[in-house]
Design brief:
This protein has two domains: 196 residues, Rossmann fold, CATH 3.40.50.720; 213 residues, 3-Layer(bba) Sandwich (FAD/NAD(P)-binding domain), CATH 3.50.50.60. Helices cover 34% and strands 21% of the residues. The strands form five sheets. Strands 3-2-1-4-20-19-18 form a seven-stranded mixed β-sheet, sandwiched between helices. A hairpin with a 2-residue loop joins strand 18 and strand 19. Helix 1 packs across helix 14, helix 11 crosses helix 12 and helix 16 packs across helix 17. The protein is globular, with a radius of gyration of 24 Å. The two termini are 41 Å apart.
């Protein structure tokens, strides 16, 4: 092991997983005690940092976006460098990285929609939820237009993404102006003729995957009634146990039951309705002339063990659009092993392994590309800690880079003509977006906090301006 220079580490991905991993490494006892010096560079394919927090969280979730404040503080310290607009597999190969870094941590997340294998999924009006999320979050690689011409819309899934999509689709656009919603998204949602959004879950209400906070937020949408169906409220022994032993399930069932009772007692007069359906699985998306016209669902029943089984009873709902929010799926990376079933890099506790299961020296993974798209921020932190613990235990054998000087990598990117952005560039873009917000007003006449720059080239220009 060399003790004459820092251990050079590259992190691919600047979302929470990548930044947490870098932060944990800098705060490790080995670094704090002076046993190890590290030099860390974080790379991202986008010109701006923060990954899914910037491009995967609904605009009306400022509390979750508040995570950016914590991530911002980590990179603001100056001991971790950021290189944006640099894509692994396109701008940089594994060989390029190995030449300059002793260890590489992949934290690229999962951004594709999981497949839904039912007839009609290819019809016009059938959409992946992640594509819609990328549109309303002004992802730089997605078109600015989105077809919002459906009155009746289905959202398949019982997770937080499904609720985000349903909430954004059912809300009045003017009520989103207090957020950083981009102008083209506001205009699109403003023109939407939607009257009814239906959220479908395969399991019963005691098995939903929402969080209590996400569920309660549905009731905060102005002029939107929540509609529940009493026949969906079925419970078996496993359901009863969950409601008795799981505090989150208990809170959510109290919320749902409260809405159900209120619905019986008070007339629903809102111009829009958000329907929550349980115990139904999608069987087929129906269409005419290539366009979605209806959704065929099979009724389910609980099997007594926390699972479900189909009843053979089918129900058709008129729909003009169907959004699939049944989970995310990771993307394969060049020269790195990939599990096509789970959608993750092949790894054991964060150590990347080859086809025989042998660890590949110097390669690591963390976040959703490591464990799959499950868990919240707490899981991401513990996940990063596990990966960094293994990296530190391997450090005796990690000094392999042939060009370990940090300054040489900036010159290397320059030599390849890559228009990379930096942390200083992010500050420029951040200030520019805040200024755009201050110059505009929300529906109440107050200045907006931010207006996103949506064009990639414009983001790069602002970030690299002298």
């Amino acid at each position: 092991m060399s003790e004459t220079r820092p251990l050079r580490v590259a992190v691919i991905g600047s979302g929470p997983a990548g930044i947490y991993a870098a932060d944990i490494l800098t705060k490790s006892k080995e670094v704090k005690n002076g046993e190890l010096e590290v030099s860390i560079d974080i790379f991202d394919r986008y010109p701006a940092p923060f990954g899914l927090i910037r491009y995967g969280v609904a605009p009306d979730h400022p509390r979750i976006k508040g995570i950016i404040t914590a991530l911002h503080k980590v990179l603001d310290r100056g001991d971790i460098r950021f290189f944006g607009n640099v894509e692994y597999g396109k701008d940089l190969s594994l060989e390029d990285l190995r030449e300059h870094y002793d260890a590489i941590i992949f934290a690229t997340g999962a951004i594709k929609d999981a497949n839904l294998d039912i007839p009609g999924v290819e019809l016009d009006g059938s959409y992946g939820a992640s594509d819609f999320v990328s549109w309303y979050d002004a992802h730089p690689d997605y078109p600015r237009e989105w077809p919002l011409n459906a009155r009746e819309i289905a959202v398949l899934g019982n997770g937080n993404v499904a609720l985000d999509v349903a909430r954004v689709l059912s809300k009045h656009a003017d009520d989103l102006l207090v957020t950083e919603i981009p102008d083209h998204v506001y205009e699109g949602l403003k023109s939407s003729p939607v009257t009814d959004v239906h959220v479908f879950g395969r399991r019963g209400p005691a098995q939903i995957k929402f969080t209590p906070l996400e569920l309660r937020e549905l009731a905060h949408s102005r002029d939107v009634d929540i509609v529940l169906y009493e026949e969906d409220f079925q419970f078996d022994e496993a359901s009863q146990e969950a409601m008795e032993t799981n505090s989150q399930v208990k809170v959510m069932m109290k919320t749902l039951n409260g809405w159900l009772e209120k619905q019986k007692e008070e007339p629903q007069t809102a111009s829009r309705r958000l329907h929550l359906h349980f115990l139904q699985s999608p069987a087929e998306i129906l269409g005419e002339d290539g366009k979605v016209t209806a959704l065929k669902m099979e009724r389910n029943e609980l099997d007594g063990n926390g699972g479900i089984k189909g009843t053979g009873e089918f129900v058709e709902y008129p729909m003009q659009a169907v959004y699939r929010a049944i989970g995310y799926f990771g993307s394969e990376l060049p020269e790195v092993g990939f599990d096509p079933v789970r959608g993750v890099i092949t790894n054991v506790e964060g150590r990347v392994v080859d086809n025989e299961g042998t660890p590949v020296p110097g390669l690591y993974a963390t976040g959703w590309i490591k464990r799959g798209p499950v868990g919240l921020i707490g899981s991401t932190k513990s996940d990063a800690l596990e990966t960094i613990t293994h990296l530190l235990s391997d450090r005796e054998n990690l000094y392999t880079a042939t060009e370990p000087c940090a300054e040489t990598f900036s010159a290397y990117l320059d030599s390849k003509g890559i228009e990379y952005t930096t942390w200083e560039g992010w500050h420029k873009l951040d200030e520019h977006e805040r200024a755009l917000g201050a110059a505009t007003q929300d529906a109440s006449g107050e200045p907006r906090a931010r207006v996103k720059v949506t064009d990639r080239e414009e983001m790069i220009r602002i970030s690299r301006s002298l």
